[in-house]
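Worked example

This section walks through a single chain of length 148. The input is the sequence exactly as stored; nothing has been trimmed or padded.
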Amino acid sequence: MTRFMLAALVALSVAGCGRLNPFGGAGETDEVMRPDTISAEIPDDRPLVPALAGIEVEPDTTGAAIVRATAAIPRPGYWKAALIPLPQTDPGVLRLAFVANPPTDATPLPAPDRVRRITAAYEISPRDLFSIREIVVLSEQNAQTIRR
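Given that input, the structure is written out below as tokens.
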């Protein structure tokens, strides 16, 4: 009886993981082609970051999800980073543009890799999360996607 209860408890807890982590903990991202006309669609005056280093989706305690993207930047000093939602072109696909203001100082500063990273996040509400099956994050040089 104890084994049966333990097995049932494990099965039920594993079945609930999909709701708690909407993208299944699939840390796998795919590199995709970035559209050439993307800059015209961004409703913001900040430029796209140079290149994406990675994206991940984590569950929130409220049932929402948080998309976190990290960009590789050529030098320190980028500021006011954000993930900006773009107009929806495909149902079920959330497209985010990773934008940031570049440094105002024109002198390049040497810095280690860990300093040449910038991170931004975007919260997806539980209502919106229900209809999203794919998230695409765009930068100047590349784009990455994560699917359910």
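What to look for: The beta strands are 30-32, 51-59, 65-72, 79-85, 93-101, 117-124, 134-138, 143-147.
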